[in-house]
Write a structure and sequence with these properties.
Elements: E1 4-7, E2 12-16, E3 21-25, E4 31-33, E5 39-42, E6 47-49, E7 55-60, E8 64-71, E9 80-88, E10 94-101, E11 108-112, E12 126-130, E13 136-139, E14 160-165, E15 168-174, E16 180-185, E17 188-193, E18 204-211, H1 216-229, H2 236-242, H3 246-249, E19 253-258, E20 260-262, E21 279-281, H4 284-296, E22 302-307, H5 330-344, E23 347-352, E24 356-358, E25 388-390, H6 393-410, E26 416-419, H7 439-455, E27 459-462, E28 475-476, E29 496-497, H8 500-505, H9 531-537, H10 550-566, E30 571-576, E31 583-588, E32 593-597, E33 603-606
Parallel strand pairs: 19-22, 22-23, 23-26, 26-27, 27-28
Antiparallel strand pairs: 1-2, 2-3, 3-4, 5-6, 5-11, 7-8, 8-9, 9-10, 10-18, 11-17, 12-13, 12-14, 13-29, 14-15, 15-18, 16-17, 20-21, 24-25, 30-31, 31-32, 32-33
Helix pairs in contact: 4-5, 6-7
């Protein structure tokens, strides 16, 4: 047993497999090292550190040098673990791979490998970068709590984190992100791997990119380059080339309204004391008249999003909500609303749902619902439609295809569609023998649903932003910051909000913001901030109330005009002006520079002259 040393022109990697400790030394002398031990956590929570290796060896290929070790004897378990740590000669990437074999179904709860890099920065000398929603920066010396740490959920829109200490740092990328989590141990970030369909099944990999001159912008750009290298950076220009309707979206305000509401007695929202709250609607024709009035106030470009068009209204009967709500005007009324949008130059968009699977839907069958590993089915009763399970993503594809053929049969032209929750809730597993689905396959199935819309010339959208869905997504409902109480007027930011997501993907998706000048707080917005100011800073459009005043319309148009100019531009850099967290600057690839003051809500947009 010995410490191994691998050196190239970019980095030096040292490792001692006997205690699973590795260190990376940068050319300038900065060292990032591990002193914690990796472990297996078995079902029930029993944690066993890696034992001494049964074997270890130096490895070499035409592109890397590495260290492989095999571990066995995990406190009575027959599991064998093979680790392989490599230093890529060309890129300097350090890759940690772990393969778990011999685990029985349900035996393992999580695997920790690699161990976390030590941080240890003093206050003012560094920070941790987390991908929580739009992005969070945690200054050295501060602690932060995680809800789940699930990768590809709100705790990690992107499979990425990083740390910066005294100017050097790293981007840590989950190269196999679908069955992954992360945890925090003081100021260390611990990557974790969880089973797929109850077993570890395949090798898991973490990729680290170290940089000597590092900040959160560099970490974001490391990840953007990684995504581009793998063909997964699909820009809005590329999406518009495939679906020309996307061009119409650029610079649009979002107009979000409802048609009908029915709250089932089985729903958590049902009001026993005020039945009128459970059933009401606004006709399609009324919404059409409101849009005409809005257009007359000067809003030329609008993207409409109508909830509750189905037979029972919002969040009911899915995935079979037809026919359109009769009280609101039925199919004829919905057709007239669609035609009105076209006359006004607006995009006609609808809410739709292919995960919540309602018991009272006309096609409901447990045969198509997700099957849990214990033979049960998921259950939820929160939403308006009451008791429901979850539709298996493998079956959702056919329902999307069927429903948009039905719109075509009814003569209702759909310009855009929002497939709810696909880009916010984590990927589902299904243990059905007829339609088994891993988390990775779930992501593929959700993308296929969105691609069906694209192939019909429909603009596809979903709730927030998950990295694995984004190649097939054009628009989201919102993707703001992680706050202490999402939606509360007095919400407090968790860490320091940064546009980590925007630095990677600004030119790949349209992210609108919900807020108007002078209004503080809101969903995912700290109570001290105005979402409109963040929209300006981030080059995003804003929502416009359907009954907006001319003054409001003017403010909306100003934000949307800026967003339209920047839609196809990469966000190159974000910074705090003179270190002041309340004064911020973004720079875009066309040379535009935007400066905002979050306290005064003042902003300045400097557009380069041609």
């Amino acid at each position: 047993m010995a410490e191994y040393r691998i050196e190239n022109r970019i980095l030096t990697l040292t490792g001692d497999p006997s205690i699973c400790r590795y260190a990376v030394t940068l050319p300038g002398g900065a060292v990032w090292r591990m002193t914690e031990a990796p472990y297996l956590r078995f079902a029930g929570g029993r944690t066993v550190p890696f034992p001494s290796p049964a074997s270890e060896e130096v490895t070499k290929s035409g592109t890397y040098d590495g260290i492989r070790a095999v571990y066995a004897g995990f406190d009575g378990s027959s599991v064998t673990v093979t680790t392989h740590v490599t230093l890529e000669r060309t890129t300097g990437d350090v890759i940690f791979s772990v393969l778990v074999e011999g685990d029985a179904p349900g035996e393992i709860e999580a695997v920790s490998f690699p161990a976390p890099f030590d941080f240890g920065a003093e206050p003012g000398h560094g920070y941790t970068v987390l991908p929580r929603m739009q992005g969070t920066l945690v200054p050295a010396g501060q602690t932060i709590r995680l809800a789940t740490g699930q990768v590809l959920e709100r705790d990690a829109y992107m499979p990425l984190y990083g740390q910066v200490r005294d100017g050097t740092g790293y981007a840590a990328i989950f190269d196999t992100p679908y069955d992954a989590k992360y945890a925090l141990d003081g100021d260390r970030v611990i990557p974790l791997w969880i089973p797929s369909l109850a077993e570890m099944r395949y090798a898991r990999r973490m990729l680290f990119r170290f940089r000597e001159a590092c900040d959160y912008n560099v970490i974001a750009k490391c990840y953007r380059a990684y995504v581009r290298e793998r063909g997964r950076l699909v820009t809005l220009r590329e999406k518009a080339a495939r679906n020309p309707a996307v061009e119409r979206l650029v610079g649009c305000a979002v107009i979000h309204e409802g048609i009908a509401t029915h709250i089932s007695p089985g729903s958590d929202y049902y009001s026993k004391d005020d039945p009128a709250k459970n059933d009401y609607y606004t006709s399609f024709d009324t919404r059409a008249e409101q849009l005409r009035a809005l257009r007359a106030k000067g809003l030329e470009k609008g993207y409409t999003h109508f909830d509750g068009w189905g037979a029972h209204g919002y969040d009911n009967l899915h995935p079979s909500p037809f026919p359109p709500h009769e009280g609101a005007g039925g199919a004829d009324g919905m057709r007239r609303l669609s035609e009105t949008c076209r006359e006004l130059g607006y995009i006609f968009g609808i809410h739709d749902q292919y995960r919540d699977y309602y018991y009272d839907g006309p096609d409901f069958s447990f045969d198509e619902a997700i099957l849990n590993g214990d033979g049960s089915h998921p259950f939820c009763s929160i939403w308006y439609g009451g008791p429901h399970s979850y539709l298996c993503s493998a079956r959702a594809i056919d329902y999307v295809r069927r429903n948009y053929a039905e719109f075509e049969r009814l003569g209702i032209r759909i310009d855009a569609s929002y497939l709810d929750v696909f880009s916010v809730v984590g990927m589902d597993e299904c243990f059905s023998k007829e339609h088994p689905v891993t988390r990775e396959q779930c992501a593929q199935n959700r993308c296929r649903c969105l691609d069906i819309l694209t192939d019909r010339g429909i603009i596809p959208s979903s709730e927030e932003i998950l990295d694995c869905i984004l190649p097939s997504q054009v628009l989201c409902h919102h993707a703001p910051y992680f706050t202490s109480n999402l939606g509360a007027s007095d919400a407090v930011s968790v860490g320091i909000p940064i546009p980590l997501l925007g630095l990677v993907y600004h030119d790949c998706v349209v992210i609108p913001w919900i807020g108007l000048p002078g209004r503080k707080g809101g969903w995912g917005i700290p109570g001290t901030d105005c979402a409109y100011t963040h929209a300006i800073l981030n080059g995003g459009p804003v929502y416009c109330p359907i009954t907006a005043s001319e003054e409001t319309v003017a403010a909306v148009k100003a934000a949307c005009a800026s967003a339209g100019r920047l839609a196809y531009c990469e966000m190159l850099r974000h910074e705090f002006i003179d270190g002041d967290l309340r004064r911020q600057r973004t720079t875009y690839s066309d040379g535009t520079v935007i400066e905002v003051d979050l306290d005064t809500e003042e902003y300045r947009i400097t557009v380069p002259s041609n």
